[in-house]
Amino acid sequence: MIVPKATPVIRQYLSIKENCPDAILFFRMGDFYEMFFEDAKTASRILEITLTSRNKKDVDPIPMCGIPAKAAAGYISRLLDSGLKVAICDQMEDPAHSKGLVKRDLVRIITPGMILDNEYLDEKTNNYLLAASAAGERYGISCLDISTGSFRVMETDEGDIFRDEIQRISPREILLTQGFLDRMEALSGNRMRELLSGRSVTYLEERAFEPDTGRERLLEQFKTRTLEGFGCDQMTVGIGAAGAILVYVQETQKQALTHVARIEPYHFYDYLMVDDMTCRNLELMKNLRTGTREGTLLAILDKTMTPMGGRMLKEWMRYPLLSIQDIVKRHDAVSEAKSLISICRELRLELGRVSDLERLGSKVVMGHATARDLVALKQSIRSFPAISAHLAGLTSTLFQWDETPDPLFELADLIERGIREDAPLSLHEGGLIKPGFNRDLDELIRLSRDGRSFLAGLEIQEREATGIQSLKVRYNRVFGYYIEIPKARSESIPGHYIRKQTLVNAERFITEELKAFEHKVLSAQEQRAALEFELFETIRKAAMEENSRIQRMGAFLARIDVLTALTHVADSNRYVRPEINTEGKIDIEDGRHPVVEKMIAGERFIPNTVRMDPMENQILVVTGPNMAGKSTILRQVALLVLMSQMGSFVPALRASISLTDRIFTRVGALDNLSQGQSTFLVEMEETANILNNATEQSLVIMDEIGRGTSTFDGLSIAWAVAEYLHDLNGKGVKTLFATHYHELTELAKTKLRLKNYNVAVKEWNDEIIFLRKLVEGGTNRSYGIQVARLAGVPDPVIRRAKTILAKIENGEFGMIEVSRAGRPAGKEPAQLHLFKAPAHAVLERIRRTDLMKMTPIDAMNLLHDLKQTAEQMGE
């Protein structure tokens, strides 16, 4: 940018801005951060601050706005929430001692994925930066949480898995190449752009993702000769993505990531896959209506006492295990802690005194830790002996930690000796170090402290010498030390007094003695602040050297926190330990929905028993009216499976859960109008995903399918989907299929592993009572009109609906008008048949019957059913 007649400061600003063109530049000028040009226009709008201008009298004044440097955190947070980056340009020298233009430089670029400061972070959520890459048929993902040092990498050759994993990680910022995005669009249309919508995306050059260069960067980062020790040596595409992250970090943070000491490879097939749609439909993390965590499984399970425990619990929920051995270890730990609940309670009390060790350690290494952070680190380390003492009473593997914490105790002692508990946030104004820690510092502090007594003595001395009892010796930050005398006594002022300032009612003076003292004291204060910072840096460096131990202790305490939280939830809510089987069985006796049972008011939650197996009860078709509880039962089965495999106990009387590889849900849909997608299209895309990816070890939840189109199309689709799931790969898929298409109950006659169930209701005087109980057998009624009455639909509409339904059931499909007079007073309407008029339904039943395979008893039963049907239809 060329600016005519630009001042030296503006030229300096523009030269620095060239290094961060896509960020809002915070340019330090004294006590303020100033923004200019387009940055000022953008920031003033988002931050709602006044937009002014520099050189207002010029033909083209420069737009500008500013914020106080001490209040920068809140403003930066708002800009980050808007998806913007903020570049921090600080003064590199003291303006009071500089000659000419103050030296300034770019010290850090804060992006949504590069945040270290707690005030910008959700304490119980990882803040991931993700890089995605592709080569041939392989896709690679790497993600880094710079605030904790967590660094992960994975590869897959399945595009759907790749996209699902990006959603599961839920990164705050994504690194891509433009070419990669174009390639993904060619393969999957707009799905990738939809996935990126609302996320901060940064595009890097192709060479940043080059695998060989990425390998070199990782080897340099970890100071190793190969990556074999990390188990990711063969992940070439993933290594390229990880290398891109390191490039980006270096560009934005202007320093090495010494706290990132390892990279963790993982494979999607090590975990139960819960895609983003299922996560939303089951309301694992967010309430579908409010977007908050209230009314979610997370709100029920997250009783953790530490931020790092909260983050680990989320990870366990999003990555349930597929290893029975590892699941059993978690169950063993929860079981033991539950049996020794008093120890669990004591552990939770002690954990409440532990700060976020993972993020504290990262702040220390990155040079952002304050004195208060070190105090929090000390207090957390000193909580460990009490925690360790309680853990001595537990024997489960996950409660054991073999490392010696002695070096950390030594660090805590150093911080205790050196850092003041009441230290200020600023590191350059003194008040950080305790008395007695350093002899030279104590001398400087004494000099500052003794200055007060010197001033008091000088005041008495000058009063006696001048005879002016109203004489005062004072200090302020603007004028320094001075002697103040009322103007009424100006005739008594000694000749060696040097006038410094004239006020309305007083005069201020200085003497050579006071001037010498001022120089001595101010020099001592500057030396004190500088020495305190130097001593603080020595202690911070000692903490930095122990960061690997700090991180390991943090991870261990996070695990203890999660296990004791799950124990607390199990003990408080009467959860039981589930058995994990490999026989494909889901056997839940008196299961309860963990969220709904806590949310309902005015009625008791009714538990339900669900039994599924690959031999006879693989697909359960569940019918029943709206509001009866079908959706609750379906969701609670899925939630109990997930809870079991993440290591939690479950709300049931007894539970045996089959090891499940994926949970799929097709539960309602919303129009995606921004992408031109209707409810039905979204529903069909979700259904296609299930049919294309489900296996015999999966669990499928289908809650109403085919309702976004015509009745006949919808029923046909629902029928075909149910058949497909039953026959898939000759083995089928465990499926809970809730529907209002009662014709689907006929499938039980031809599909041996499909069974009918319904959620029972009781009729009373044309009203229905919801029993909330799952019972065997289908139903041929939805009680839609009764439910409409409960919802408050006006009585004339209810009566009219009954009349119309009766006409339809009598075969009057072609009617244009049904008389409003003379409402039918005879039999109440039953339920609309979707395929044919009722009379033809009897004929169709006979036509479909294979007489050659019927026994005499079967024939008699068929005739009995047909006779009842005819009587009900009055034919």
Give structural notes.
With 875 residues, the chain is an alpha/beta fold. The protein has 28 helices and 27 strands. The strands form five sheets. A seven-stranded mixed sheet has the order 13-23-24-25-21-26-27, sandwiched between helices. Helix 11 (307-318) crosses helix 20 (547-573) and helix 14 crosses helix 15 (371-382). The radius of gyration is 36 Å and the shape is elongated. Mean pLDDT is 86; it is low at 671-676 and 813-838.
Shape: elongated
- Classify the secondary structure makeup into a structural class: alpha/beta
Amount of beta strand: 15-25%
What composes the largest sheet? 7 strands, mixed
Q: Assign a percent range to the helix content.
A: 40-55%
The residue ranges in which pLDDT falls below 50 over 5 or more consecutive positions are 671-676, 813-838
Task: Please state the average pLDDT score.
Answer: 86
Main sheet: strand order: 13-23-24-25-21-26-27
In DSSP terms, counting alpha (H) and pi (I) runs of 4 or more, how many helices?
A: 28
In angstroms, what is the radius of gyration?
36 Å
Short description:
The chain has 28 helices and 27 strands.
Name its key features.
six-stranded mixed β-sheet; 43% helix; alpha/beta; 875 residues; seven-stranded mixed β-sheet
Which helices and strands appear, and what pairs or packs with what?
Layout: H1 8-17, E1 24-29, E2 32-36, H2 37-47, E3 52-54, E4 62-68, H3 72-81, E5 86-91, E6 104-110, E7 129-135, E8 138-145, E9 150-156, H4 159-169, E10 173-176, H5 178-188, H6 191-196, E11 200-203, H7 211-222, H8 236-253, E12 264-265, E13 273-274, H9 276-281, H10 297-301, H11 307-318, H12 324-339, H13 341-351, H14 357-365, H15 371-382, H16 384-391, H17 406-418, H18 439-466, E14 472-476, E15 480-486, E16 498-502, E17 506-510, H19 512-545, H20 547-573, E18 579-581, E19 586-591, H21 596-599, E20 608-612, E21 619-623, H22 630-646, E22 654-658, E23 662-667, H23 679-693, E24 699-703, H24 711-727, E25 734-738, E26 754-764, E27 767-776, H25 784-790, H26 795-809, H27 838-848, H28 856-873
Parallel strand pairs: 1-5, 7-10, 9-12, 10-11, 13-23, 18-22, 21-25, 21-26, 23-24, 24-25
Antiparallel strand pairs: 1-2, 2-4, 3-4, 5-6, 7-8, 8-9, 14-15, 15-17, 16-17, 19-20, 19-22, 26-27
